[in-house]
Specification:
The chain has 337 residues and is an alpha/beta fold. It has eleven helices and 15 strands. It has a six-stranded parallel β-sheet with strand order 12-11-10-13-14-15, sandwiched between helices. Helix 8 links the parallel strand 13 and strand 14. It is elongated.
């Protein structure tokens, strides 16, 4: 589940708390070249304001009009439905053309009135605590149950129950707060990462804190911060100080953690020297050392801080997507990661 969908639930919770009626819509099945995958989430407020999407814009106008009409038909801002219902778009070639679904794509959706937000608040709290959560909706009653999920678990729909998985936001810990870190932080925020920055050097940290709104500074020495963070499979760690006194100890902790990506700034020669230090003085294994991405980023021939930041975030996204796809494939085969 994308962290975008957590934002949709957050909007829905805020809207309902402000007195609005809200309907949730979830993609449950697709055929053909459907623009949004199963599990994609949309929230529609009683006045037609939306958060999220289920088709990339193809059917949203019709869907919003349908839901708004339902609110008006019962009055008082209450949804017309009192329990979930199925909606299909693009079931014929003519409809696919009408709604702009590419290549005859078809969508099946579950429309659900948000009558109780208790589960929303609980789910958001649990994912904020970096837990994986499965939400099971029973269509016949509208009852929602939350349970622990496992990495790689995918959405499941059998016609009567819908189980979707919500994970914590992908997060990025940057060691160092210099000019390059500022560029990386800005791009990571645009990609919906939670961005944490650690730099015990006050001069650098103060500049980053004021220059990039939305990041969170974590105080302390980098190795202590990494250890206390308890990096999980949704965490990337990148060392950018170019100072072995700060980078090496943080990398030592990161390479022994569950972080899906660990990278460090520096030339190939510097990386070879770093790996030699880590192996000699800290007894890191060859399997742990091979996890270190260095020189950090894709080989784009980048020169400027902005170009280097693009190469770093591109590699992080590449690894993230490969890891997520591998986890889903393994789970589908019967072995849970």
């Amino acid at each position: 589940m994308e962290s975008l969908d957590l934002r949709v639930l957050g909007d829905a919770l805020n809207w309902q708390s402000a007195g609005h009626a809200v309907t949730l819509v979830t993609v449950v099945q697709t055929w053909g070249s459907a623009p949004r995958p199963p599990g994609a989430l949309l929230a529609v407020r009683d006045d037609g304001v939306v958060s999220g999407s289920v088709s990339g814009g193809c059917v949203e106008d019709d869907l919003i009009a349908r839901i708004k009409a339902g609110f008006k038909s019962v009055g008082g801002g209450m949804p017309a439905l009192d329990k979930p219902a199925m909606i299909a778009y693009g079931v014929s070639k003519e409809e696919a053309t009408r709604f702009g679904l590419p290549c005859g794509g078809t969508l099946r959706l579950v429309q659900e009135p948000l009558l109780d937000t208790t589960w929303v608040a609980q789910l958001l709290a649990r994912t904020a605590d970096h837990q994986l959560v499965a939400r099971t909706l029973t269509l016949a009653t509208g009852a929602v149950q939350l349970s622990d999920a496992v990495r790689g678990q995918s959405m499941h729909f059998d016609g009567s129950t819908l189980t979707t998985v919500f994970g914590p936001k992908w997060r990025l810990l940057l060691i160092g707060a210099g000019q390059l870190s500022q560029a990386v932080a800005q791009m990571a925020l645009m990609l919906d990462f939670e961005v944490l920055v650690c730099d015990p050097r006050e001069e650098y940290a103060a500049t980053l804190a004021t220059g990039v709104p939305g990041i969170r500074r974590v105080e302390g020495m980098p190795d202590d911060v990494v250890r206390e963070l308890v990096p999980d499979a949704h965490t990337a760690i990148v060392a950018l100080t170019h100072d072995p006194k700060l980078d090496d100890m943080a990398l030592l902790e990161a390479l022994q953690s569950s972080a899906f990506y660990v990278g460090a700034l520096g030339s190939r020669r510097n990386q070879d020297a770093r790996k030699e230090r880590l192996a000699k003085h800290f007894d890191l294994s060859a399997e742990e050392l091979v996890r270190l991405h260095g020189p950090v980023g894709l080989a784009l021939g980048a020169k400027t801080p902005a170009e280097i930041a693009i190469s770093i975030m591109a590699e992080i996204v590449q690894v993230k997507n490969v890891v997520a796809a591998a986890a889903a494939t393994t789970t589908a085969g019967g072995a849970l990661i």
